[in-house]
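Minimal example, chain plus NDP.
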Amino acid sequence: MRKQKITILGATGSIGVSALQVIEQHSDLFEIFALTVHTQKEKLLTLCLKYQPKFVVISDELSADWLKNQLDMNSKTEVLTGPLALSEVASDSEVDIVISAIVGAAGAIPTFAAAKTGKKILLANKETLVLAGKLFYQIVKESGSLVLPVDSEHNAIFQVLPSQAEHIKNIILTASGGPFLQKPIEQLEEVTVKEALNHPNWEMGAKISIDSATMMNKALEVIEASWLFNLPANKIDVVIHPESIVHSMVRLIDESVLAQLGVADMKIPIEYCLAYPNRIKSGAKELDFECMSELHFMKVDKKRFPTLNLAYQVLEKGLDSGCILNAANEVAVDLFLKNKIKFTDIYALVVDALNYFELEQYNDLETLLYKDNVVRQKTLELATKNFN
Ligand code: NDP
Ligand code: MG
């Protein structure tokens, strides 16, 4: 059988690295076509030497020139840069699979390019669906693209989803609760960046780690689930499960509950999507039931995690509210990471941005990305005005 050719968008990230680890174990099935990064040129050089992709993409021209100089004249790898390059390597006719693992709305344009050209898309970049889920699925329907969820909760649901939609009562996304599940609420204001980045179960990039600490990650995931599984807000629940062993559940109309379990390792969902509908080894550790004495489940405390409500508001209001939520959150998280605002200001700033903007209709991604930009500027202004 011909090897499947893969483009990884965001190859130096936490998901990108896990994906490469799975692919490496199955070099008889897959080969790397293109790898893209934002700034990490040294890491990209190492990846070029190891995988010899046909193309690599790096965001700025100086880094691209540096990389070209480092690569041997006989290197098979072509170095690309510039705004169109990401979409080119995501939509190239040679590519079979695109792993969408850029963080933030920056991942939307190349993910759309992959969808337009009917690729099999392994979707980690949940922001694409929060920003533009409706448009994305219009395109997916037209092109016949296959979208598979990498996000562990959605992957779990996908693994156990019944074939008949009318059998689903609801889906239950599990949430670890992040590093501040037990911290007294009045102390949340003063938590440091280092504490917020310190997720108890998962090793992830900075943005999603902060989103997990505020529970905005689960809010984004509720919206993501609504688009992926075509479910209304009232069929999507969230339960806290601090051990991150049960990755999510589907409750059926006869009160059976189906769950997927496993160690907290993104190689499992990535493997499932890569091989789907087959299964191959992921390289993750075995789940050891003897070491796992207790599993806990509890209700989400909305006072501790007010962000979760925002997902349900966005699903109810529709229009471009997801775009506003996502852009304001990206700005707020960035300001927190730079020590410019407090941890609790993240939620407050996102709410200020949501309250500021009128919701609008949109018919294309360009309109949404224009709004995304406007929201980012305004959120920065609001931060200076309200949180200094
Ligand atoms: P990381 O921050 O670890 O990696 C992000 C990747 O995207 C890096 O390769 C980075 O390049 C690249 N990148 C960042 N900004 C840009 C940009 N503006 N243009 C082009 N490339 C860019 O993120 P994660 O791997 O943690 O997350 C990636 C996506 O997957 C997110 O949407 C996240 O929500 C989702 N996800 C992640 C999970 C996880 O376990 N990490 C679990 C479920 C979903 P460089 O390294 O050069 O900066
Ligand atoms: Mg998740």
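Residues 10-16, 37-40, 59, 101-103, 106, 124-127, 151, 202, 204-208, 266 surround NDP (ligand 1) (CB under 6 Å). Residues 4-149 form a domain with the Rossmann fold fold (CATH 3.40.50.720).
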